Amino acid sequence: xxxxxxxxxxxxxxxxxxxxxxPIWDCLRGVLYTDDSQVKLRLAGSFNLLDPVYDYQALDFTxxxxxxxxxxxNAFETEQHIxxxxxxxxxxxxIRLNLNRDAN
Length: 104
Fold this sequence. Notes:
With about 100 residues, the chain is an alpha+beta fold. The chain has one domain (about 1-90). It is built from two helices and three strands; from the N terminus they run βαβαβ. A three-stranded mixed beta sheet has the order 2-1-3, sandwiched between helices. The two termini are about 30 Å apart. The model has no long low-confidence stretch (mean pLDDT about 85).
């Protein structure tokens, strides 16, 4: 399985992404999986919505239902903190090296 936790925020400083995600995976033990070692790929991020580097309008919402996209976009405009949690079946094509194509 894979899992991701994204924290989007405005006013307050962002939380450390890894420290934020670990308790979430711990509390899902017994609900989504027997042991969090089953989560083979875990991504976490904390993003200030007021920083122009994080243009949430450029996010890839492919495959997410319109209702969820609409709720997220509305929350980005109206809420101070948004926590997005996603998990699913792991597959090898989720592993990407050189995420920034110009990186070395």
